[in-house]
Specification:
Catalytic activity: (sulfur carrier)-H + L-cysteine = (sulfur carrier)-SH + L-alanine
Family: Belongs to the class-V pyridoxal-phosphate-dependent aminotransferase family. Csd subfamily.
GO biological process, one term: cysteine metabolic process
Distance between the termini: 35 Å
CATH class of the largest domain: Alpha Beta
Number of helices: 15
Helix content: 40-55%
Oligomer: single chain
Radius of gyration: 22 Å
CATH topology of the largest domain: Aspartate Aminotransferase, domain 2
Largest sheet: 7 strands, mixed
CATH architecture of the largest domain: 3-Layer(aba) Sandwich
Bound molecules: pyridoxal-5'-phosphate
Organism: Anaerosphaera multitolerans
Cofactor: pyridoxal 5'-phosphate
Strand content: 15-25%
Number of strands: 15
Order of helices and strands: HHEHHEHEHEHEHEHEEHEEHHEEHEEHEH
Length: 410
């Protein structure tokens, strides 16, 4: 496992930590800080290489095309797909909407079922409500057991001949649950080989090696900004044949083949789904972020974050004034959601902020999950590779201060 010195070296890559005087940033599930290499890469692109890609014959049009398509190849290799299967979008939300608009609206009808879990982020839930409303397909939910897991029995009970789309997050942003998505996809395809499977990888891809061929999913969505890149760049992976059978999501420049007065023909994936001027610097920053992750090793990153989360989790579940909502099952994502039994999460987050600790408070875009847990809001600490055990100790000590300041009994 990475040791203390390794992490201290890694921390030097993140100027944010230095410029904020080592502010304790435990809101990595919302977005990570960016390594210098990624920020410098963006600067370098704009200082030396900027042009509008895929159009024009001059040096900078060509250079920006190389930068953009190079990033696509890097992402494709990162998740073991072909580059035609990688569509650059703004974020995971846009990727999940693309599937809703371009596949689901055209393929679902009354009597069909969309199977999803209660722990989905709104990005992978409200879009399916929209589809259900338009197509009259029915939403069917998978619920968590008392260990915050979705069991195979639950999946088998809810899968039916009517299920046409099955979607689930590979890692919950609230309860940390990491379902065995490979097995779940296998079970869904066994029930009905025509079921389309959609994996929300927003909280999973930043921490794990992903092989889409091995997973067997039809679609995978994730965001760059949660894995050290700029904001404004996200990825939709889709099986090539499926993507090319779908209607475009948006219409305009660069996604067309021929345009006549009354109709047009469209390019294949990925251009088919990337209308208009694209985000070259964002794609480049994601490519550089992937280099950064690979330089440390995805598995090394996760092992370290897992140890950090375990250290914090084991101490937090012993605190009598806290309720912890994260799954007790060891295989989990590095997020710990909790509440003080008698304090509002926003008060907790504000007090911790006074001690230079950033945590998230609110519903974390997962209102149905919070309602299912019988709460409205929670606090969430989420970890990344630059966080330390000392920071966790500091955080734990200041939970005591929150308790004292809020007048809560120990
Ligand atoms: C599980 C999950 N899915 C989807 C998203 C949406 O990501 P974005 O806001 O980058 O589109 C998030 C963001 O927090 C998330 O945690």
């Amino acid at each position: 496992m990475l040791n203390k010195n390794d992490i201290l070296e890694i921390r030097k890559d993140f100027k944010f930590l230095e410029s904020t005087n080592n502010y304790i940033y435990f809101d990595n599930g919302a977005t990570t800080q960016k390594p210098k290499k990624v920020i410098d890469g963006v600067d370098n692109y704009y200082y030396n290489e900027n042009g509008n890609p895929h159009r024009g014959a001059h040096h900078f049009a060509i250079k920006s095309t190389e930068v953009y398509e190079g990033a696509r190849e890097k992402v494709a290799k990162f998740i073991n797909s072909s580059s035609n299967e990688i569509i650059f979008l703004r974020n995971a939300t846009e990727a999940l909407n693309l599937i809703a608009y371009s596949w689901a609206l055209n393929n679902l009808k009354e009597g069909d079922e969309i199977l999803l879990s209660i722990m989905e982020h709104h990005s992978n839930l409200v879009n399916w409500q929209f589809v259900a409303d338009k197509t009259k397909a029915k939403l069917v939910y998978l619920y968590l057991d008392d260990k915050m897991q979705i069991t195979e029995e639950e999946l088998n009970k809810k899968l039916s001949a009517k299920t046409k789309l099955f979607t689930i997050t590979a890692a919950s942003n609230v309860v940390g649950t990491m379902p065995d998505v490979k097995e779940f996809i296998k079970m869904a395809k066994k029930k009905n080989s025509g079921i389309i499977t959609v994996i929300d990888g927003a909280q999973y891809v930043p921490h794990h090696t992903v092989d889409v061929k091995d997973l067997g999913c039809d679609f995978l969505a994730f965001s760059g900004h949660k894995m050290f890149s700029e904001m404004g760049i996200g990825v939709l992976y889709g099986k090539e044949e499926l993507l090319n059978s779908m209607e475009p999501f948006m219409y305009g420049g660069e996604m067309i083949e021929y345009v006549y007065e009354d109709h047009s023909t469209f390019l294949k994936s990925p251009q088919r789904f990337e209308a208009g001027t694209v985000n070259v610097s964002g794609a480049k920053s994601l490519g550089d972020a992937i280099d950064y992750i690979e330089g440390i090793g995805s598995e090394n990153i996760f092992k370290y974050e897992e140890e950090l989360m375990k250290y914090a989790y084991d101490k937090m579940i012993e605190l009598p004034y806290l309720e912890v909502y994260t799954t007790p099952v060891e295989k989990r994502s590095p997020v710990i959601s909790f509440n003080f039994k008698e304090a509002h999460p926003h008060d907790v987050a504000s007090i911790l902020d006074n001690y230079n600790i950033a945590i998230r408070s609110g519903h974390h875009c997962a209102q149905p999950l919070h309602r299912y847990l019988g709460i409205n809001f929670s606090c969430r600490a989420s970890f990344s590779i630059y966080n330390t055990f000392d920071e966790v100790d500091y955080f734990l000590n200041h939970l005591e201060d929150v308790r004292r300041l809020m007048g809560i009994g120990s």
